[in-house]
Amino acid sequence: MIVEHTPNMVVRPARNVWSAVRRGLRHRCPNCGRGQLFRAYLKPVETCSECAENLGRIRADDGPAWLTVLITGHVTVGAALTMEMVHPLPVPASIALFSGLTLAMALALLPRAKGVFIGAIWAMGATGEE
Ligand SMILES: [Zn+2]
């Protein structure tokens, strides 16, 4: 239920941020948790197929990429440095191993990070429209 406060201000009921973030992490609609969040790898649906929530207006911008790089960088650099101290590999093998790990992690994390950001943005009502 939306309660109008003044002509320019709309007060919405509180939304659970963590619930919306968990649903986004699973590529589900942050509102109902049943509808798909993406229609392609990183392309969100315009409206939820289950509850008709308008999701196409939410702009995550570069937040998902930032989170993906943050996590992937810490894991792969930590793993590479640990491997170098414990069991050093030849340089070409190390480059191949950690490049592949970095690529796989980035591709796996990016849509999940975008789901997290869309869920959080939806829960806070900050769509970026204004
Ligand atoms: Zn929904």
Keywords:
single chain; 130 residues; mainly alpha; two-stranded antiparallel sheet; 5% strand; elongated; binds zinc ion
Major β-sheet strand ordering: 1-2
Q: Which blocks of ≥5 consecutive residues have pLDDT under 50? A: none
Biggest β-sheet description: 2 strands, antiparallel
Strand content: 5-15%
Helix fraction bin: 40-55%
Quick check: average pLDDT? 91
Give me the Rg, rounded. Answer: 19 Å
| Cα shape | elongated
Structural class: mainly alpha
Topology as H/E string? EEHHH
Distance between the termini: 21 Å
Q: Which ligands does the model contain, each kind named once?
A: zinc ion
Report on the architecture of this protein.
There is one protein chain. With 130 residues, the protein is mainly alpha-helical. 52% of the residues lie in helices and 5% in strands. The protein contains three helices and two strands. It has one domain (3-124). It has a two-stranded antiparallel ribbon with strand order 1-2. β1 and β2 (9-11) form a beta hairpin. The protein has helices at 17-25, 63-86, 91-124; strands at residues 3-6, 9-11. α1 (17-25) crosses α3 and α2 (63-86) packs antiparallel against α3. Residues 29, 31-32, 34-35, 48, 50-51, 53 line the site of zinc ion.
Q: How does the SSE layout of this entry go?
A:
Blueprint: E1 3-6, E2 9-11, H1 17-25, H2 63-86, H3 91-124
Antiparallel strand pairs: 1-2
